[in-house]
Design goal:
There is one protein chain. The chain has 128 residues and is α+β, with helices and mostly antiparallel strands. It has helices spanning 6-37, 50-56, 85-90, 112-123; strands at residues 63-68, 72-77, 96-99, 103-107. The protein has two domains: 1-39; 50-123, Glucose permease domain IIB (Gyrase A, domain 2, 2-Layer Sandwich). The longest helix has 32 residues, at 6-37. It is rod-shaped, with a radius of gyration of 28 Å. The termini are far apart.
């Protein structure tokens, strides 16, 4: 670098800045696309018959609490005898059912939040 003229040194530094700047812009663009792809999707379309679901769960009086995750809805119930598990399992929009002595979990996909909110509004069921 000692044998270079000032003009050549300036050009050398300028080209390094342009190269590193281009690489920085490329990485930021790739990172932005990657972050957009890793966002969880949420579906607001309700494809399940809510009245039928609530009836199969023993009515709104049998449900004392409801919670949801990204793709699951957990219903806390009062009486197990009132729940029609076979009818719930036959529903094509429900891909999985788990039940124990206190709650039932339904796997409904990306629309779990929309279904939960609509049930809370329609049947006045609250989360605790």
């Amino acid at each position: 670098m000692n044998n270079m003229t000032n003009k050549e040194k300036f050009l050398y530094i300028f080209l390094q800045i342009i190269t590193l700047g281009t690489i920085w812009i490329y990485w930021n663009h790739k990172n932005k696309k990657y972050n957009e792809q890793n966002v969880l999707s949420q579906d607001y379309k309700i494809i399940i018959d809510l009245n039928e679901l609530i009836d199969n769960l023993g009515g709104s009086d049998n449900i004392n609490n409801i919670e949801n995750t990204h793709n699951k809805i957990k219903f806390f119930y009062n009486q197990y005898d009132l729940i029609d598990i076979d009818a719930i399992k036959k529903d094509k929009s429900i891909s999985g059912v788990f039940i124990n002595d206190k709650f039932i979990v339904l796997i409904v996909g990306n629309s779990a939040a929309a279904i939960t909110n609509k049930i809370k509004e329609t049947y006045n069921i609250s989360s605790k």
